[in-house]
């Protein structure tokens, strides 16, 4: 028996020559991969390398153009997710497939083929979530849950199927460090039960910590395989990107200008029973300043973003000033007109309409603020398609957005590349004020450093920037001042220089009267 056939026989899952073409574009190009029983196998690669396309083929979401898949020694045709589940393959996607109006248990019921009652499913989900350390209320409505909680539903849903292989596409990008630690414990339990995990992540430290082997993809091809524990984050990043990753130069020590964002004693009642009430929020951000807001998911970050952006205007016009103007009651478009830009946390369905082209997504966000540029004069206000497409192409060039066509749909971009486009769409206007929520979720090391540098540079040119993030490394890299949010309350902000992880931890934990630090 040839060696590669022997390896395939001993593997839980083996793929040979797996290829996926979208028109002329080859997203996966002759991929060979073997996953052994009871191993945690990392799949690494920069944004657009083909990782999601590969795992979608393994889960029956996409049909391979050609290539072979062997499961427990047998050649298989994974024609649908139902077939994948039946074989024993579970998957947690990077973008969740949950119905917001339904409860956790109802969502899980939709993917169960055995016709169990909702209460039985709720019970099982509760037991499983307790056993694996993934707390979840089966009767909560998905619409009221944070991204981290939504992900737990997906994980529990996959575990309920008792899979032999579970595929996780960037599972920790939305988790706090504590939640991530819990997830790693879950993965160790799965491994001890001789189940395998295929683990996609851009966080190289965690890959080193938990993965037994790693396969690296670049431009749709396997470029290397290694034992990640014998590598460094730097050497892994080089294998993925093909070059060194630039470090971000921050604005420490720069003098700040006028106040561009001012919020005074703002309170906002929770809109739903599961949302957070904002309590007496005050903050000031000056020209040149990047305020990093750290916090554990679900402590009011999205509610704060909503009131700052005008997605949910507040009663008191004077409670929020942007660029020197009272804007509390204004909606998002009118705040853009004042000179502000916003990037929400969820890219699909919130920051971008997946089924629409990039240029249409650009127009949707900026038709009011850039009417003179994108619409003709006169009563008709016709769309200047040429100008919109040229601007979209320029953004893709500036942000190095890798895509498979001239002006593709947002859905066809890899997650990280869509994020680069969405950030670029705001930066291109050079807003005086920019508020971003989790700006580098699911973005590779090279692209994350590019986005962070762009935020720092915007502030350097005289804008005020707010970065809401769960990623403390990101907070340290970009911020000139740091605040913590917990239970709907924002701490005072402190100069980033002199801050430590421990001090931020106290702010995130709600100990706002931090000793030994001086607010400004
Ligand atoms: N349905 C599609 N139609 C056209 N092109 C697509 C489609 N799906 C993916 N692609 C392209 O295939 C390439 C690989 O995308 P994929 O999502 O697999 O990357 P990835 O490695 O998972 O990236 P990320 O880390 O950003 O999630 C990208 O250039 C993407 O634009």
From TrEMBL:
Q: Which residues form the ABC transporter domain?
A: 13-244, 261-512
Q: Which domain of life is it from?
A: Bacteria
| Annotated keywords | ATP-binding, Nucleotide-binding, Sugar transport, Transport
Entries under PANTHER family matching the protein: CARBOHYDRATE TRANSPORT ATP-BINDING PROTEIN MG119-RELATED, GUANOSINE IMPORT ATP-BINDING PROTEIN NUPO
SUPFAM superfamilies the record matches? P-loop containing nucleoside triphosphate hydrolases (SSF52540)
Please report the organism this UniProt entry assigns to the protein.
Rhizobium paknamense
Protein's name in the database: Simple sugar transport system ATP-binding protein
- Alphabetized InterPro entries for the sequence: AAA+_ATPase, ABC_carbohydrate_import_ATPase, ABC_transporter-like_ATP-bd, ABC_transporter-like_CS, P-loop_NTPase
Keyword Transport attributed: yes
- Note whether Ribonucleoprotein occurs among the keywords: no
Which Pfam families does the record cross-reference, listed alphabetically? ABC_tran
Q: Into which family does the record put it?
A: Belongs to the ABC transporter superfamily.
Q: Which residues form the signal peptide?
A: none
Q: List, alphabetically, the SMART domains matched.
A: AAA
Q: Kindly list the GO molecular function terms attached to this UniProt entry.
A: ATP binding
């Amino acid at each position: 028996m040839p060696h590669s056939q022997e390896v395939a026989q001993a593997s839980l899952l083996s793929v040979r020559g797996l290829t996926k073409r979208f028109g002329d574009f080859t997203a996966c190009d002759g991929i060979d991969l073997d996953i052994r029983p009871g191993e945690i196998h990392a799949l690494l690669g920069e944004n657009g390398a083909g990782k999601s396309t590969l795992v979608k083929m393994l889960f029956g979401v996409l049909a391979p153009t050609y290539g072979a898949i062997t499961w427990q020694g047998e050649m298989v045709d994974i024609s649908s997710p139902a077939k994948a589940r039946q074989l024993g393959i579970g998957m947690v996607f990077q973008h969740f497939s949950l119905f917001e109006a339904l409860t956790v248990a109802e969502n899980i019921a939709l993917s169960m083929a055995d016709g169990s009652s909702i209460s039985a499913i709720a019970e099982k989900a509760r037991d499983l979530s307790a056993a694996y350390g993934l707390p979840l209320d089966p009767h909560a409505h998905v619409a009221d849950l944070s991204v981290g909680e939504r992900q737990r539903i997906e994980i529990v849903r996959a575990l309920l199927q008792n899979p032999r292989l579970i595929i996780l596409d960037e599972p920790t990008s939305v988790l706090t460090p504590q939640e991530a630690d819990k997830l790693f414990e879950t993965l160790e339990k799965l491994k001890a039960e001789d189940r395998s995990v295929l683990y996609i992540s851009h966080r190289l430290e965690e890959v080193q910590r938990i993965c037994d082997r790693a396969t690296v993809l670049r431009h749709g091809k396997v470029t290397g395989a290694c034992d990640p524990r014998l590598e460094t984050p730097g050497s892994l990043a080089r294998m993925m990107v093909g070059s060194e990753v630039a470090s971000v130069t921050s604005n420490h020590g720069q003098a700040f200008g006028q106040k561009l964002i001012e919020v005074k004693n703002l309170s906002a009642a929770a809109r739903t029973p599961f949302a957070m009430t904002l309590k007496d929020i005050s903050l000031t951000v000056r020209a040149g300043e990047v305020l990093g807001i750290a916090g554990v998911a679900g402590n009011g970050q999205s509610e704060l973003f909503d009131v700052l952006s005008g997605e949910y205007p507040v009663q008191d016009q004077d409670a929020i000033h942007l660029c020197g103007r009272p804007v509390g009651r204004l909606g998002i478009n009118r705040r853009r007109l004042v000179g502000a830009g916003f990037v929400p946390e969820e890219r699909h369905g919130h920051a971008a309409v997946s089924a629409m082209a990039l240029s249409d997504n650009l127009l949707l966000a900026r038709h009011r603020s850039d009417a003179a540029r994108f619409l003709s004069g006169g009563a008709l206000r016709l769309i200047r398609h040429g100008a919109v497409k040229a601007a979209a192409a320029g953004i893709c060039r500036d942000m190095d957005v890798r895509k498979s066509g001239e002006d593709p749909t947002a859905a066809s971009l890899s997650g990280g590349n869509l994020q680069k486009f969405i950030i670029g769409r705001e930066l291109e206007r050079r807003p005086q004020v920019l508020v971003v929520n989790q700006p580098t979720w699911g973005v590779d090391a090279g692209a994350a450093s590019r986005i962070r540098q762009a935020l720092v540079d915007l502030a350097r040119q005289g804008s005020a920037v707010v970065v809401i993030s769960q990623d403390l490394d990101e907070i340290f890299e970009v911020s000139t001042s740091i605040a913590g949010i917990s239970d709907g309350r924002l701490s005072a902000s402190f100069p980033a220089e002199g801050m430590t992880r421990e001090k931020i931890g106290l702010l995130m934990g709600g100990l706002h009267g931090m000793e030994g630090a001086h607010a400004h």
